[in-house]
Design brief:
Order of helices and strands: EEEHEEEHEHHEEHH
Shape: globular
Structural class: alpha+beta
Number of strands: 9
Helix content: 25-40%
Low-confidence stretches: none
CATH topology: archaeoglobus fulgidus dsm 4304 fold
CATH class: Alpha Beta
Number of domains: 1
Number of helices: 6
Mean pLDDT: 94
Distance between the termini: 25 Å
CATH superfamily: archaeoglobus fulgidus dsm 4304 superfamily
CATH architecture: 2-Layer Sandwich
Largest sheet: 7 strands, mixed
Length: about 190
Amino acid sequence: MKPHVRVLGIDDSPFRFGDNRSLVVGALVRVPSYLEAVMKTVVTVDGKDSTERLIEMISRSRYKEQVKAILLDGIALAGFNVVDIAAVHESLGLPVLTITRDLPDIDAMRDALKKHFDDWRERYELVTRLELKQLSTSSKPLYAAGVGLEWREFQQLVSASTVRGVVPEPIRIAHLVAAAMAKGESKGRS
C-alpha cells in the first residue's frame, strides 16, 4: 500500500424510524488523517437503493480517480438498506471493506429481516455473502468483510488509517460530518 493513499469512509446520519430518507456522507481522507473532500447522497430508510446511490455519489465526484479504497461503517445504511459491496467493487473497480465494532447476531438479524421485509432472503444473502473476519487493533478487535484486496492488504489499510482508538479515520470523520449535518452537531461514537 502506498503511503498517503486516499480512502473514502462512508457512514449514514442518525435517523428516526418513520423517516423516509437518511443522509449518507463520504469522507475522502489521505491516510492517515488528512481530510481532502466530503461528498453526500441520500438513501431510503429500509430501502434498496444504497448500492446504486453509493455508485452514483462516487462516480459523479470530481475526486473519483483519487479514491483508492472504500470503507463502510457496516453492510447496511439507513436501517436495512443493505449495500451489495461486490456490485460497488465491480462497478467502480475499487476495493470495498465493511467494518463493524461488534460481531453481529446473524440469527437476530435474519429474524428481523423475516419479520419486516417480503424480500428478506435477498437482503439476508447480501448480509451473509462474505464471511466476517476479525481485525486486530490496539485494543478491541473489529469485524470486517471485503472484496478487491487480499486480507492482509485490508488489515494494513485499516491499521494505517486508524489514528486513535479502533475506528479508521475515514469512517470516523464520515460519522461526525453525517451526524452534524443531520442534527446540527456531532456526538456519539462512530
